[in-house]
Amino acid sequence: MSLITCPDCQSQISDAALTCIKCGRPMQIKAAQSNVVVTEGFIPPRSLSFVEAIDTCFRKYAVFSGRASRSEFWYFFLFGIIMGVLTDLIDSMMGYIVFGPSSAISMLVFFIPNLAVATRRLHDTNRSGWRQLWIFTFIGAFFILYWLTQKGDQQTNSHD
């Protein structure tokens, strides 16, 4: 038995595993007598805990392909808000009134993973990640918010 690398979480697992032990991603299984790859039915992304969501989003720092569950997106969003409040408190203790160095660093650290997880979340609802640009219009922001809260597709879609 040999080891393979999970494309989502990069952990080493057995090539005979049906799913990744760490992230739950369904794996492709090679048939015993042939080189045909058999894929089990589509399994939507599973719900993640708060810590798992943060870990996953930072491991997939700039991964814009695939899907993200609602829990992954919203827990990471909540974590970003908590970190923003904490960095604002740190900046205010250092004497900055509006925007200080900790806030700037926090924004830089969270910018790309926020874009990536939002793109994957939109992919889960079978929409292009480029639709995030709609946020720059007043009406488009409501559509984006609605799509981010929608339940994901239960079948394969064009972003798998």
Protein traits:
single chain, 160 residues, mainly alpha, two-stranded antiparallel ribbon, 44% helix, globular
Layout of strands and helices, then pairs:
Elements: E1 3-5, E2 12-14, E3 29-30, E4 37-38, H1 50-59, H2 70-93, H3 101-124, H4 138-149
Antiparallel strand pairs: 1-2, 3-4
Helix pairs in contact: 1-2, 2-3
Largest sheet: 2 strands, antiparallel
Low-pLDDT stretches: 30-39
**How much is the average pLDDT?**
85
Number of helices: 4
Structural class designation: mainly alpha
Can you tell me about this structure?
With 160 residues, this protein is mostly helical. It contains four helices and four strands; from the N terminus they run ββββαααα. It has helices at residues 50-59, 70-93, 101-124, 138-149; strands at 3-5, 12-14, 29-30, 37-38. The strands form two sheets. A two-stranded antiparallel ribbon has the order 1-2. The protein has a two-stranded antiparallel ribbon with strand order 3-4. A hairpin with a 6-residue loop joins strand 3 and strand 4 (37-38). The protein is globular and about 60 Å long. It starts with a strand and ends in an 11-residue tail after the last helix.
